[in-house]
Amino acid sequence: MRINIIGIGLLGGSFAMGLRKTRPEFEFIGVEANHIHAQKAVDLGIVDKVLPLDEALAVADLSVLATPVNIIERLLPEVLDKLPAHGKVIDLGSTKQIICDKVRKHPKRSQFVAAHPMAGTENSGPDAAFATLMKGKTVVICEKESSDPQAVYLVESLFRELGMVIDYMNAVDHDLHLAYVSHLSHITSFALGLTVLGKEKDEKRIFELASTGFSSTVRLAKSSPAMWAPIFAQNKANVCQALDGYIESLQIFKDAIQHSEEHSYQLMEKANDIRRILSGIEKKSVNS
Amino acid sequence: MRINIIGIGLLGGSFAMGLRKTRPEFEFIGVEANHIHAQKAVDLGIVDKVLPLDEALAVADLSVLATPVNIIERLLPEVLDKLPAHGKVIDLGSTKQIICDKVRKHPKRSQFVAAHPMAGTENSGPDAAFATLMKGKTVVICEKESSDPQAVYLVESLFRELGMVIDYMNAVDHDLHLAYVSHLSHITSFALGLTVLGKEKDEKRIFELASTGFSSTVRLAKSSPAMWAPIFAQNKANVCQALDGYIESLQIFKDAIQHSEEHSYQLMEKANDIRRILSGIEKKSVNS
């Protein structure tokens, strides 16, 4: 089996590194526009070689689109156009609706599987990749019925080898859920970073005072703008709806802090329910 | 040396457990209104015994007020009234202005040192305490000049034994900085929890989708309302100012997502600066 990683960064690189562990017989090739990343990906042994897109597509059994979502949107139709009959392609993008819509009527649509492995860190590039990134996490497959069953079988088998749990959704639901559970988290963190950087001109102070919870809530503010700007743009309507809800929650909280300690207590008690739900997740991660 | 922990929870318990490691000769006693916590604190070996407040104050060299800040505000004048001449008292509260103001003119003010060890987790109670909680973290001493130098020397020595870095601030500055760097983080997280719980009625969905960053940004939403409601109430003006700035940042972000992907990119690039500042912090924690 020859797997072609298009965009050898955190996600694409980790996908290859994870499979290399269980499948040393697989060959990994890559397509990478950034020459420094391309060289690093070879040096780190993530891929055996980097090829031009057309050559890589011609020889690969499976091509993995792991670029930012705006590039996936642009490349996917071209990749399908050039895909040989035996070839299959998946994307790993964090949005699904625009990407699925883009190729809905493509004659080779069934050779494509839309996937979103829900794993990541605030770091990016091939240096950030590691073999166990996806282990124990969920991958969402969207619009499974539009893909060839053999392609779905192959892709699911590979994600299972990486230790992932498979989930199915339509692309519209996926993008709505992700706006709340992932995209909003990133915005809350970016905005927290901006607010504190704007107020605390003295960096040493931030540095000294940041031990009480700030580091973890602001962690995602380190994430790559090249990855996230296109995600927010593609999922604009859902993200703005989630942001409106979040701003409303903040205003309710502010009002409670100003006028009723009892109400502020009750709001926090309600939010505490997240502990019960997440302790389920933590248990699941440990067991899987 | 006999140390008296008033409120044997995460912070007071960890203070005792940390010192027990380096100072097995110290005696630790405690005052605890919650009978289950009192029994647990003895069972876990955090304190040797639990006493009524008056008895504990009479025999302790140092009393440590480690209750929620509203209880500190109420108890501190009474503790000072009853403090024997050799006794010293510190508080570990997350707000400082109201607490310092409360005893500014107390005849025994110099026997009190106002301290805020900036360490914590989202968990509470004696079960949550552990010996290394404060290691490598910063403790802020406020209004040092109002405390007896011997009391300051004792308290600083103990915090140094716990591996803490000492910092000084006046109470007004402390509360302003903390509103941005700690209190705001907690509110962003509580509000995120409320928003997602409000929208995602299907808990299984939250559970499945929460791997991409949500868990870390929402972690603080598990924090104790009994601890945080009084902090927000005592630091109301600063916290509301910080919240206004944060809501403004979110609105700027939302506007950028709606109208200009380039602007949204630039905002994230600016927020990324937090990586440089926090990598300094991480280095410091590793080294100390």
From TrEMBL, chains A, B:
Organism domain of life: Bacteria
InterPro entries associated with the record: 6-PGluconate_DH-like_C_sf, NAD(P)-bd_dom_sf, PDH_C, PDH_N, Preph/Arog_dehydrog, Prephen_DH
Segments forming domain Prephenate/arogenate dehydrogenase: 1-287
UniProt cross-references to PROSITE patterns, sorted A to Z: PDH_ADH
Signal peptide: none
Pfam families per UniProt: PDH_C, PDH_N
One GO process term, biological-process aspect: tyrosine biosynthetic process
Protein name (Swiss-Prot/TrEMBL): Prephenate dehydrogenase
GO MF annotation: an example: prephenate dehydrogenase (NADP+) activity
Gene3D superfamilies cross-referenced by the UniProt entry: 6-phosphogluconate dehydrogenase C-terminal like domain, NAD(P)-binding Rossmann-like Domain
SUPFAM superfamilies registered for this protein in UniProt: 6-phosphogluconate dehydrogenase C-terminal domain-like, NAD(P)-binding Rossmann-fold domains
Keywords linked to the UniProt accession: Oxidoreductase
Naturally occurring in which organism (per UniProt): Rapidithrix thailandica
EC number(s) from the headed UniProt entry: 1.3.1.12
